[in-house]
Design brief:
The protein is α+β, with helices and mostly antiparallel strands and 165 residues long. The chain contains 5 helices and 5 strands. The protein has a 5-stranded antiparallel sheet with strand order 1-2-3-4-5.
Length: 165
């Protein structure tokens, strides 16, 4: 004799009871999840809902040139400073807000010689500097950085030429 066990149509009784219990207590579950994740649970659900309504991202690479929306050097809120960051980028920034105004270039190394590379298309940068900034510090392109001309002296010279001091 053979017993035939067939699958029932629909969910199992235990699954149906669990689903009803979760639906009945959804508010409490959401509140506990928000408390455990410090609000990230609901924020993630909102972000997913917003992303599902957004159009799909375009294919290919997209480059954003953010120079047009930035504050001009004369209208900055605080005083403007030039610094060489840890990753060898030379930037002009507003010390009041901390906002970067310009990427002026970077310190590069070639054959154990460190030099300043101005942010220009010729040096491999996507966005070139404004014309007035390039005219003011263009002579420093290729300046060798060593004991005679350390990074701090380069930053001071750039600040002086751009009128930030």
């Amino acid at each position: 004799m053979v017993d035939i066990i067939s699958k029932r149509d629909g969910p199992r009784r235990e699954d149906e009871r669990a689903r009803r219990m979760i639906q009945a207590n959804q508010g409490a579950i959401t509140q506990i999840a928000d408390r455990l994740t410090q609000g990230a649970y609901s924020a993630g659900k909102r972000a997913k809902a917003a992303a599902s309504n957004a159009p799909p991202p375009p294919d290919g690479k997209i480059f954003h040139d953010l120079t047009s929306g930035r504050a001009q050097t004369g209208t900055a809120s605080g005083d403007i400073r030039v610094k060489v960051s840890v990753n060898n980028r030379v930037v002009a920034y507003d010390s009041g807000s901390g906002r970067q105004l310009h990427l002026l270039g970077e310190i590069r190394r070639q054959d154990d010689v460190r030099y300043f590379a101005l942010a220009s298309r010729e040096n491999g940068f996507f966005s070139a500097l404004p014309e007035d900034v390039t005219e003011a510090i263009g002579e420093l392109d290729g300046q060798i950085i060593d004991d005679a001309c350390p990074e701090s002296l380069l930053a001071g010279e750039i600040s002086e030429r751009l009128g930030f001091q």
